[in-house]
Give the backbone structure.
Amino acid sequence: MADETGADETRFVDAAPDDYLEPGETATVDVGGTAVTIANTGDRWCAFQSMCPHQETPLGGVPLLRGVLLRCPEHGSVFDVSTGECVLASDDGWSGPMRTFRTQVVDGVVQVSLG
Ligand code: FES
């Protein structure tokens, strides 16, 4: 995002090498002191909050379902990790979104912007 001076405020931080995960895998990594879960969807990298927004179940290591979908193992909410949208409610009817972060790959390194 550009500020009034035209400078780009987006700051990307190294997260992992771009061969860190196989397609369909996720892992929680340190991004500048913040735990973030990254996912290799097979054609892109996604980044999102490391704990489920419902009741804070860790999401790192949970395999993706069909591309960009991730099912929380605790109560079954299914999220689109590319947008953060909850596409299937939890067992108790909760269906809030998860926070997602922008990613880019530069020189073989996945980078995440927390901004
Ligand atoms: S903790 Fe993830 S759906 Fe409840």
About this structure: The chain is about 0% helix and 40% strand. The longest strand covers residues 34-40. Residues 12-67+99-106 form a domain with the Rieske Iron-sulfur Protein fold (CATH 2.102.10.10).
